[in-house]
Design brief:
By secondary structure, the protein is mainly β. It has one domain: Electron Transport, Fmn-binding Protein, Chain A (Pnp Oxidase, Chain A), CATH 2.30.110. The protein has helices spanning 9-16, 64-67, 83-89; strands at 21-22, 24-30, 33-39, 43-48, 51-58, 73-77, 103-105, 111-113, 118-130, 133-145, 153-155, 158-160. The strands form 3 sheets. Strands 3-2-6-9-10-5-4 form a 7-stranded antiparallel β-sheet. Strands 1-11-12 form a 3-stranded antiparallel β-sheet, with no helix packed on it. It is globular. The two termini are 29 Å apart.
Length: 165
């Protein structure tokens, strides 16, 4: 039965968690330092012309103000073998986020995570205020896909793998 929403952040979070999503690492080299932000709000196919993808970032993020300074941002849709790497990349302690993680840095400074099924190199197209988040549209400048690697899926507050039925 449908319940009228009242301000209950725990119920809202639990309800949102029922929707499965991919997990993307957005990363770049900024001032000689690799920065990364992990997002389950990443969306592809926003626009074909120009080619746009998007994600939403919390306004309280301390990483986004750094990352948004980059000319190019790498987006790596994480693969089904990246569950532990995802936790590491999202850690509060920035100093060890990339330790032991296979990365490729493009000439434009975008950082891409090895073993990912999808890579995009993007620039910021636009940002829009959206409550306690900011919606960021990114324009695709380069891309790569490996159909042999399945994506990591986040649903019910845990990582899952796809199964062909």
């Amino acid at each position: 039965m449908l319940t009228t929403y009242s301000p209950d952040s725990a119920l809202l979070r639990e309800t949102f968690s029922c929707f499965p999503s991919g997990v993307a690492a957005l990363s770049a080299e900024v001032g000689g330092q690799k920065e990364v932000l992990v997002a389950s709000s990443f969306t592809v196919g926003v626009s074909m012309d120009p080619p746009l993808v998007m994600f939403a970032v919390q306004n309280s993020s301390t990483t986004w103000p750094l990352l948004r300074q980059a000319d190019r941002i790498g987006i790596s849709v994480l693969g089904n073998a990246h569950a532990s790497a995802c936790r590491q990349l999202a850690a509060k302690d920035r100093s060890g986020r990339f330790t032991g993680i296979d990365v490729l840095t493009t000439d434009g400074g975008a950082v891409l995570i090895g073993g990912s099924p999808v890579w995009f190199e993007c620039s910021i197209h636009a940002e829009y205020a959206a409550g306690d988040h900011t919606v960021v549209l990114l324009e695709i400048k380069a891309l790569y896909a490996d159909k042999a690697v399945d994506p990591l899926v986040f649903q019910g507050s845990r990582f899952r793998q796809l199964e062909v039925v």
